[in-house]
Amino acid sequence: MAQAQHSPKSSAAPATATSDVLRYVNPNIGTAHSRWFFYTPAAVPYGMAKLAPSTNGHYGNPSGWEAVGYDTRQNSIEGFVHFHEWQVGGVSFMPTTGELRVKPGELDGPATGYRSRFDRKNQVAEPGYYRVLLDDYNIRAELTATKRVGFHRYTFPQSEQAHILLDIGNKQGESSDVTDASIRMLDATHFEGYVSTYPKYVQTYDPTGKVNMYFAGEISRPPASVGAFTAAGVQLNTQSAQGKGAGLVLNYKTAANEKIELKVGLSYTSTANALANLRAEAATLSFDQARAQAQATWRRELGKLAVEGPDEASKTKFYTGLFHALLGRGVASDVSGAYPRHGGQVGQLPQPTTGQARAEFINTDAIWGGYWNLTQLWALSYPEWYGSFVNTQLQVYKDKGWFGDGLANSEYVSGVGTNMVGLAVAAAYQAGIRNYDVNLAYEAVRANELNWRNRAFGSGKMDTKAFVERGYVPFRDEYKQYKGEWFKTDSTGSYFANSHTLEYSFSAFAAAQMAKALNKPADYAQLLKLSNGWKLIYNPQTKLMQPKLADGMFAPNFNPSEPWRGFQEGNALQYTFFVPQNPAGLVAALGKARFNSRLDSIFTVSEKNGFGGGKEIDAFAGIKSIYNHGNQPNLHISWLFNFSGQPWLTQKWTRRICDEFYGTEPIHGYGYGQDEDQGQLGSWYVITALGLFDVKGFTDARPIVQLSSPIFRRATIALAGHKKLVIEAPAASKTNCYIQSAQFNGKPLANCWLYRDELMQGGKLVFVMGSQPNKAWGTQVPPPSAQ
């Protein structure tokens, strides 16, 4: 494939004013090897309508999750697509001129289809807006959106043969092949249709499920004629098309610089609701008004975290990370509260109680690792979205009997198979987010940890029986591939036994704390005992977590750096530090001196490799490393020095990860082509740059916040509960990354942590920073560990 020439200036959003937070968001960062849902600039926070150019979306991906959609190394665009979620993609539009082509064509030969080459110097990507010049047609394409409505504006040259292709019947991104599609003109300027797909992960985890996408659109000018196409070919002067490969072509004669606009209402439930969404959100909006509204929304939501200081590159990383955090996991419910239920059914969300906004139903990738980034950010300043996540999962529990690890229109799309949803729900309760039936929530959390009978495969944790009965999951080497199934898990054990044991121990701790808060003493005792399952797989001889067989013996042929064997997306060197519920217990098991020297040396060595997979452009490049910031299992361990008496090392290494792993280039963004997972790595940067983090993901009965080196000299945070926190570090810089002393609301702060409820009252947190560590600060009372 041809390689693009990159310039930071050509791909950055233009600065409209020094005070405009949008100037620090560059959606083009990290767009090499980026996932289907990563690059969607023409959208609002948590939008259903996520419009973006596609360079390779119709290629799909063989495993159902790999990078596809927009790749900064590719130089032609094949369409502008409306739906971008985990396992959800579809409805592509493309303006063209000249001879009619109805196939997108090949990347290596743009002339083989309707795709067009483009030059990135003629591309603008901003939060809520996208613009590009299609070189082969001399057409300027612009995109923007409301929450559920996509807007297109195409500026044509003079042409006797101008076309707008509504290509709906082909796979897009992670959606897999289209199983059914239909589109028809309703009158001269209105159209509607639907697309049904059967994504790879739905096939695997929820085989009777399906993903439906509906749309209803209007055009600013009637076409001169309309044609249809399907996989079988083109039918001229036809107003509708159905089946695989379906689409319509709107034909025009255009004057120079003539603009044609489209508004497209979207829904996952029906064309009627797509039309209702269009009328509710965009009936009278012009394109320019929609863009202004979208960007005002982004300014408001991004502006809830206001950072100041001379470090411009860090501001770009910060706000681009926040942009991705607020973009991921989009709304699936309509303005009416209708939402997609299993198998193409339609449900209705309950009316909110007086004074509360209705929680939205959202599509979501797995929350695996999200408790170390996304949920902490939500709980800080965006509690309504944490509430929507919890309410979505509780609705699925009511509808289907189990939480769903990942969800695509209520279908289980597990992905990792461990289901940490119960932990995230328990943490929401502890963080004071309770806009749901608490008793139902506890029932679902308990079931997620302890129940296995008739458990749905797509809900994950298929080895719950083994864990509950033994306290650990037995390792089964033969399950690497068993009767054609890779990485099998069942009631007797798992190939990923060790990572499962560690994760289930953590989630059992979270459930135990919720049980205690709700006065469930028997559940509390059982769950707390299970939270120590990590001790059963810790080998005191090797000082590592080691796969253990059903007979109680450690597995032979153990290689600590070998990925996958016993550990999902990682290895023993990485996962040995996965005891977030009891860091003090892990420190004691290893010995404090060994713990600190080993962990410090891990970071010293891994810094040479960019804290991950080096410069290899591959989501799994770092899973064989000793530390891998590009994936979830390691995201808390740079904060563990706060628990081991050396908080200055947390200050040192969190700062260096922020400075070196994260970049501001299309290729070096989140590492090199790492897996950003709908805002997780961006969220980690945001909260770490503020100097706030909780290793335990707010699962404690009284959650805490650990402190580290803030990157910015001043940050003003709009807290949940309409309060304000100001964090000041006047001398902060790359050199001055060590905390010398601190004050909270005028009182000296001797410890490297605070109770979260105190912090969330707001006020002022002030750090005195220096270039050398103050090894006395923050060591007096370590953060609470086991409770």
Automatic annotation (TrEMBL):
<dbReference type="InterPro" id="IPR012939">
    <property type="entry name" value="Glyco_hydro_92"/>
</dbReference>
<dbReference type="GO" id="GO:0000224">
    <property type="term" value="F:peptide-N4-(N-acetyl-beta-glucosaminyl)asparagine amidase activity"/>
</dbReference>
<keyword id="KW-0378">Hydrolase</keyword>
<dbReference type="GO" id="GO:0030246">
    <property type="term" value="F:carbohydrate binding"/>
</dbReference>
<dbReference type="GO" id="GO:0005829">
    <property type="term" value="C:cytosol"/>
</dbReference>
<keyword id="KW-0326">Glycosidase</keyword>
<dbReference type="GO" id="GO:0005975">
    <property type="term" value="P:carbohydrate metabolic process"/>
</dbReference>
<keyword id="KW-0106">Calcium</keyword>
<dbReference type="InterPro" id="IPR014718">
    <property type="entry name" value="GH-type_carb-bd"/>
</dbReference>
<feature type="domain" description="Glycosyl hydrolase family 92">
    <location>
        <begin position="273"/>
        <end position="771"/>
    </location>
</feature>
<dbReference type="GO" id="GO:0006516">
    <property type="term" value="P:glycoprotein catabolic process"/>
</dbReference>
<dbReference type="Pfam" id="PF17678">
    <property type="entry name" value="Glyco_hydro_92N"/>
</dbReference>
<dbReference type="GO" id="GO:0016798">
    <property type="term" value="F:hydrolase activity, acting on glycosyl bonds"/>
</dbReference>
<dbReference type="InterPro" id="IPR008928">
    <property type="entry name" value="6-hairpin_glycosidase_sf"/>
</dbReference>
<protein>
    <submittedName>
        <fullName>GH92 family glycosyl hydrolase</fullName>
        <ecNumber>3.2.1.-</ecNumber>
    </submittedName>
</protein>
<dbReference type="Pfam" id="PF07971">
    <property type="entry name" value="Glyco_hydro_92"/>
</dbReference>
<comment type="subunit">
    <text>Monomer.</text>
</comment>
<feature type="domain" description="Glycosyl hydrolase family 92 N-terminal">
    <location>
        <begin position="24"/>
        <end position="267"/>
    </location>
</feature>
<dbReference type="InterPro" id="IPR005887">
    <property type="entry name" value="GH92_a_mannosidase_put"/>
</dbReference>
<dbReference type="InterPro" id="IPR041371">
    <property type="entry name" value="GH92_N"/>
</dbReference>
<dbReference type="InterPro" id="IPR050883">
    <property type="entry name" value="PNGase"/>
</dbReference>
